[in-house]
Recover the amino acids of this structure.
């Protein structure tokens, strides 16, 4: 198994059962060219040796790819998982959306986001909403930010403070300063922490709009 892995450009865990052993380390696509057919072919040959689909190993591989900022590889491996009919976790969707963001593939991110919303609806996490808003903020799309925010409000999901600031900026860019103020007043804490004389001190915010 290990010899096969190195031949294909993977680093495989020494465990004889990657799919079922929680202590197994991960495999890594490392030396293959950026060609869909080559990537998919190698992954297909790898899984052909497994009695069960290596979900755990695939998830761990995506974690490693994320830490290494290998965004294109994340997209390739995740699309391969989808082509095999694998159901992605919300965490994997988060990684994929981040990869699309970093690669500037907004249309594909939106397609995946629509799948997430339609499939999970009431269970979509605050983290995923924040991921989409962060992407739209990164690519200067304030109207899109407000569309996601509208979905959040409809589903009763409150944005974290960083996301609230991005929403506020989107309103400001569209000339809706009154709504910016309402969002910041609603979702930002009335307190913040600063360092003073080497200590962390809680102080009251005086003006949300200058955050």
């Amino acid at each position: 198994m290990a010899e096969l892995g190195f031949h294909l450009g993977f680093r495989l865990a020494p465990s004889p059962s990657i799919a079922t052993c929680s202590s197994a380390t991960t495999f890594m696509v490392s030396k293959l060219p950026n060609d869909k057919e080559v990537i998919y072919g190698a992954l297909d040959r790898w899984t052909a040796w497994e009695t069960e689909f290596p979900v755990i190993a695939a998830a761990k591989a995506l974690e490693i790819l994320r830490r290494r900022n290998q965004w294109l590889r994340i997209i390739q491996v995740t699309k391969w998982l989808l082509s095999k009919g694998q159901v992605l976790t919300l965490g994997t969707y988060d990684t994929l959306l981040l990869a699309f963001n970093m690669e500037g593939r907004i249309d594909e991110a939106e397609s995946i986001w629509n799948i997430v919303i339609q499939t999970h609806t009431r269970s979509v996490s605050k983290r995923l909403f924040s991921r989409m808003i962060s992407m739209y903020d990164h690519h200067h799309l304030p109207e899109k930010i407000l569309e996601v925010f509208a979905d959040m409000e409809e589903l009763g999901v409150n944005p974290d403070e960083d996301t609230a600031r991005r929403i506020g900026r989107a309103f400001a860019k569209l000339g809706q300063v009154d709504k910016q103020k309402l969002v910041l007043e609603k979702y930002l804490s009335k307190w913040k922490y600063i360092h003073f004389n080497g200590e962390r001190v809680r102080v009251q915010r005086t003006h949300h709009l200058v955050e």
